[in-house]
# Entry
Amino acid sequence: MAKKAKNFKKSKTGVYISLASTAAGTMSVVKQARMARQDNDMLRLADAAVSAAAIVTGLAILYRELKRLGDDDVLLG
# Structure
């Protein structure tokens, strides 16, 4: 049982949870970009753009991992 819990991140469920938490980060980036536009703060706007790129890249990596898992899910035995 402990071995299965240890490999949770490599399971479909773990990847789905990672996808959801990464996607939830988009709300803070959108909020940061709106505030930066209101204040005409180019540095904060650039930071929001870099953060958005990191989120997109993270989601793409997690999606690829999900496709790789296929049928050999760790938690399903």
Notes: Residues 11 and 31 are 32 Å apart (CA to CA). The mean pLDDT is 82.
